[in-house]
């Protein structure tokens, strides 16, 4: 077997876990919706059918004061048990074990009833928490125990106590958020007492056969957090209190250090779980930025952990485990850690999903139904929308021909994959190409279609994508001006000083591409480079694992001078993802990129780019000017003749409209159309 360690069963007390794959906890926002638990049951059930060994649910609060936001799910009474039984029944029929995560938000609750060890407001919440009295602390512990009892009644095999990421238990542990002077504060032994008591009492109440996992913060990434010696002290105490497994938590939500986005090197934090595993006797789960079976298997072989937790990879592909088990990892739709449809959706109170798999969390709303009549489908354009539509249509039973005018499939995906920190997009390209081949889809490269050819099919889909929009600026045809496509595909050679017109997502990508060219010459390991840049102490000898950022001035001086420009008076990248925009801005700041806003473009000439900022003229003496000011649709030259065809013609992706085009919209439209064909 290719992934021998990954698929070795594990005996946990009287429970056998069929493999070492854990589907980690994710909040989906489904719990609070009408028929939300039915949708959750279908979501988890499909992953269980895909042979994952253990599922840990999204966080469920043990009481109303512990919720993350108004109307979030609570399990504190018998009335909630039946809903959760829908989930456990859907999962257990496939032989998968499932644990419910108990999460108390503490001061992270986005609601006025929040409580905490001390009345210290979190930077990510508008409310100041009420400091718990000793009597109220005892109530919180009792509520954890009660919630665990109800979870057992609902059919869960166990619970995970959420003790990391800056939630209530973590707030007790760390002196930055625990200023108490009683038996629940002060010394480290007092500060960890809350966590120990919860575990001890849950174990006493539920017995030895009930799985008890504790999610332990291995590095807080906040000032005055725990050192690793303290983490180990807590781990040993948790062993003594009765935990069956220790899961790895990385970073607090308020930390200004990225931990799960695509620019974070794969398995960056696994060395911490390796140290934990060497020090404890209970099995250890490692997590964060693990998205392929190859990486997972290597971590197990290198004794970094006993189990591998992957959360969002199961949004991207519910059959991840089943495909890996039969050595078919090329067919896995890999998570690219973009945050775009999962975390970004959650933060605007929408259900989570996935940009590379629009069915995620929508299984009951978007079933794949075989076509009654198999049709001959022609798809023009081999970018993301065209490839996705071809795949979804073929899965329904249609015969598909995909026409691409160039010598390479991918379109804008190819450009995105060339951006430093976005290399994971290559996985999406690999998946699409592999899936096209496995479905026997006819792919015709370097072909210019015509109306006569398309008329022979039952349905025609135009997915010809977009190209860069050229703004009306005096001198815009000067030789120093180049479009973003030519930069990202390597056609244009860029050196010296650069002005980028447009500070949206494409502008940020181009700035990263230009500044990243020299950084890629750095021969140090990627983990070390990233840790230095973001001030991460992976030894965690410094409290919280935070050190001063190491982007030295000399390194910045070696980079080309880059100006990122926009007309509007607002922060650059305002339309970037809510959970990732700050990371992109901070990264470019590290690279010395100068961001200018509220300006107008006067002209381009031999001197460079002439701009006006608040009615004051200024010259940017640059060598190159790159246009990133938007996109426009690309349509085939015969598109007006398509109306004369007697067969249906549909448009998707950039061909439909270039406005606000992204991968999520392209793939989503492809899926929706394919289900109607």
From TrEMBL:
Its cofactor is FMN; [4Fe-4S] cluster. It comes from Pseudoalteromonas prydzensis. Residues 376-633 form the FAD/NAD(P)-binding domain. PANTHER family: 2,4-DIENOYL-COA REDUCTASE, 2,4-DIENOYL-COA REDUCTASE [(2E)-ENOYL-COA-PRODUCING]. Keywords: Flavoprotein, FMN, Iron, Iron-sulfur, Metal-binding, Oxidoreductase. Residues 6-327 form the NADH:flavin oxidoreductase/NADH oxidase N-terminal domain. Pfam families: Oxidored_FMN, Pyr_redox_2. In the N-terminal section; belongs to the NADH:flavin oxidoreductase/NADH oxidase family. It comes from the Bacteria. SUPFAM superfamilies: FAD/NAD(P)-binding domain, FMN-linked oxidoreductases, Nucleotide-binding domain. The keyword Oxidoreductase applies. This is NADPH-dependent 2,4-dienoyl-CoA reductase. The keyword Metal-binding applies.
């Amino acid at each position: 077997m290719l992934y021998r360690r990954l698929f070795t069963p594990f005996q946990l007390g009287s429970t056998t876990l069929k493999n070492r794959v854990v589907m980690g906890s994710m909040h989906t926002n489904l719990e609070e919706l009408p028929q939300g638990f039915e949708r959750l049951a279908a979501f988890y059930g499909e992953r269980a059918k895909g042979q994952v060994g253990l599922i840990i649910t999204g966080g469920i609060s043990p009481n109303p004061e512990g919720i993350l936001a108004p109307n979030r799910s609570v399990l504190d009474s018998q009335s909630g048990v039946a809903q959760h039984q829908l989930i456990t029944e859907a999962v257990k029929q496939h032989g998968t074990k499932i644990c419910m995560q108990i999460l108390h938000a503490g001061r992270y609750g986005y609601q006025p009833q929040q409580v905490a060890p001390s009345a210290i407001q979190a930077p990510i919440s508008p409310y100041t928490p009420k400091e718990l009295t000793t009597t109220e602390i005892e109530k919180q512990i009792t509520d954890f125990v009660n919630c665990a009892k109800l979870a057992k009644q609902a059919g869960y095999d166990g619970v995970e106590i959420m003790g990391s990421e800056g939630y209530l238990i973590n707030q007790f542990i760390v002196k930055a958020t625990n200023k108490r002077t009683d038996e629940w504060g002060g010394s480290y032994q007092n500060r960890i007492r809350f966590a120990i008591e919860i575990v001890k009492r849950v174990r006493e109440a539920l017995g030895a056969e009930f799985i008890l996992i504790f999610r332990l913060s291995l590095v807080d990434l906040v000032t005055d957090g725990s050192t690793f010696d303290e983490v180990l002290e807590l781990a040993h105490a948790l062993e003594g209190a009765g935990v069956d497994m220790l899961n790895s938590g990385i970073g607090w939500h308020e930390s200004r250090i990225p931990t799960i986005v695509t620019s974070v090197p794969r398995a960056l934090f696994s060395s911490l779980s390796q140290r934990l595993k060497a020090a404890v006797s209970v099995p250890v789960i490692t997590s964060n930025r693990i998205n392929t079976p190859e990486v997972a298997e290597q971590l197990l072989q290198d004794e970094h952990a006993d189990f591998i937790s992957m959360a969002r990879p199961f949004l991207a592909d519910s059959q991840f485990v089943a495909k890996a088990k039969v050595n078919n990892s090329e067919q896995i739709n890999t998570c690219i850690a973009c945050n775009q449809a999962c975390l970004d959706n959650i933060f605007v109170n929408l259900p989570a999903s996935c940009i590379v798999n629009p069915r995620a969390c929508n299984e009951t709303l978007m079933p794949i139904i075989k076509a009654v009549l198999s049709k001959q489908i022609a798809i023009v354009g081999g970018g993301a929308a065209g490839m996705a539509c071809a795949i979804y249509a073929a899965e329904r039973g249609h015969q598909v021909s995909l026409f691409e005018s160039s010598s390479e499939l991918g379109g804008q995906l190819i450009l995105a994959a060339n951006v430093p920190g976005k290399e994971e997009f290559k996985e999406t390209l690999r998946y699409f190409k592999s899936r096209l081949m496995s479905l026997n889809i006819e792919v015709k490269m370097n072909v210019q279609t015509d109306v006569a050819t398309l008329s022979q099919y039952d349905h025609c889909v135009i997915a010809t994508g977009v190209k860069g929009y050229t703004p009306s600026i005096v001198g815009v045809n000067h030789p120093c001006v180049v479009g973003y496509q030519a930069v990202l595909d390597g056609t244009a050679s860029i050196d010296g000083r650069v002005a980028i017109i447009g500070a949206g997502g494409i502008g940020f990508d181009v700035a990263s591409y230009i500044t990243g060219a020299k950084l890629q010459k750095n021969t140090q390991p990627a983990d070390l480079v990233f840790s230095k840049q973001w001030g991460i102490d992976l030894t965690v000898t410094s409290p919280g694992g935070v050190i001063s950022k190491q982007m030295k001035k000399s390194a910045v001086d070696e980079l080309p001078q880059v100006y990122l420009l926009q007309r509007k008076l607002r922060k650059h990248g305002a339309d970037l993802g809510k959970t990732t925009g700050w990371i992109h801005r901070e990264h470019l700041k590290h690279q010395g990129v100068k961001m200018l806003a509220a300006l107008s473009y006067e002209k381009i000439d031999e001197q460079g780019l002439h701009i006006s900022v608040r009615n004051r003229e200024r010259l940017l003496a640059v060598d190159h000017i790159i246009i990133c000011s938007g996109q426009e649709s690309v349509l085939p030259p015969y598109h007006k003749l398509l109306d004369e065809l007697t067969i249906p013609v549909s448009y998707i992706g950039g061909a439909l409209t270039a406005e606000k085009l992204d991968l999520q919209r392209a793939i989503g439209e492809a899926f929706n159309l394919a289900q109607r064909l």
